[in-house]
Structures are given as structure tokens and as C-alpha cells.
């Protein structure tokens, strides 16, 4: 597991969140892929380690494996943000002070598509920009699923930020 700039990650192995458990199992999985590749990881129950995902399809996959009713097609970061703020089909928006491991951070600029948006799973106690995350993309845009912190992974859009913290809704 990569350690960025000597950052010491909190041990998250004791968290009860299914989102954390499922995302931890995928650390080291996937190549970063967009468009048609973003869901090229095979069967969602048993994804291929050498498959492809982007940040939002990774969140979708983790939610699907954790038992959330997320349909058959991965969402995008703009859809995630809009759902958390308005529709609440998959997410509900929460305040930063209420963030806990297993929640999701979504940061969008403009349309939120491509390099204008990113999302990750909260992987530790809320510490502002030093909050731990599990993601694909971000600081390692071509690498596999890994751990990082918000400040490092969202750095290119953080100053123009539109931050949404969201809690997955189990709507089955």
C-alpha cells in the first residue's frame, strides 16, 4: 500500500462499515479507465483485479457489494452530487461535522465531469482536508485503488471546490 509523503494512515481494520470493509478488499485492484472502460471490471460480485474503473464506478461497485440498491449502471460524480442534494435515491447530503468512515466525499467544479470532479470513500475520522480516503484516481490518476487524504487527492480542484459529503442510503 502506498504511503504518500510519509502520511501515517489510521488503522481502519476495526471499522464496522461495509463500505470500508469492501473498499479495503479492493486496494490494489483495477486500472483507471473512463468512458466505456469505467465498468470493465467483470462481474460485480467477483471483479477482476486487472479490470478498469473510475472514481465513481468504484464507489458504485463498493455500494453494490455492500448491499445497497444502486441499479445496474454506475453513476457519475455529477449524478452523485445531485442525488445527495436533491433526490436521495442513493445518497443523502450530510454536514462535515457528521462525516464518519464509510461516507462519501464528492468534489465537483463546473459540470463535474472528467477532471472537474472526483469522489472517494471516507476512511477515517473527519479531519478536514487531512481526512483519509480510499479511492481510484486522485493523486495516482493511472494507478489502482489506494488510500490517500482529501488534500492530496483533490488538490487540482480543491481551491475551486463544491464539496458534498454524502451518506449512502440503503433503499432496498
TrEMBL record:
Pfam families: CHAP. GO terms for biological process: proteolysis. It comes from the Bacteria. Residues 52-134 form the Peptidase C51 domain. GO terms for molecular function: cysteine-type peptidase activity. This is Phage capsid protein.
Amino acid at each position: 500500500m502506498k504511503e504518500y509523503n510519509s502520511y501515517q494512515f489510521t488503522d481502519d481494520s476495526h471499522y464496522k462499515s461495509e463500505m470500508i470493509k469492501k473498499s479495503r478488499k479492493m486496494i490494489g485492484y483495477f486500472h483507471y479507465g473512463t468512458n466505456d472502460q469505467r465498468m470493465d471490471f467483470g462481474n460485480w460480485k467477483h471483479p477482476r483485479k486487472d479490470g478498469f474503473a473510475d472514481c465513481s464506478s468504484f464507489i458504485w461497485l463498493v455500494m453494490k457489494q455492500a448491499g445497497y440498491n444502486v441499479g445496474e449502471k454506475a453513476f457519475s460524480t455529477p449524478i452523485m452530487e445531485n442525488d445527495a442534494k436533491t433526490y436521495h435515491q442513493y445518497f443523502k447530503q450530510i454536514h462535515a461535522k457528521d462525516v464518519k468512515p464509510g461516507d462519501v466525499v464528492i468534489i465537483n467544479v463546473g459540470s463535474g465531469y472528467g477532471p472537474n470532479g472526483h469522489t472517494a470513500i471516507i476512511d477515517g475520522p473527519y479531519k478536514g482536508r487531512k481526512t483519509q480516503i480510499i479511492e481510484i484516481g486522485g493523486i495516482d490518476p493511472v494507478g489502482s485503488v489506494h488510500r490517500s487524504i482529501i488534500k492530496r487527492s483533490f488538490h487540482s480542484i480543491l481551491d475551486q471546490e463544491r464539496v458534498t459529503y454524502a451518506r449512502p442510503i440503503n433503499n432496498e
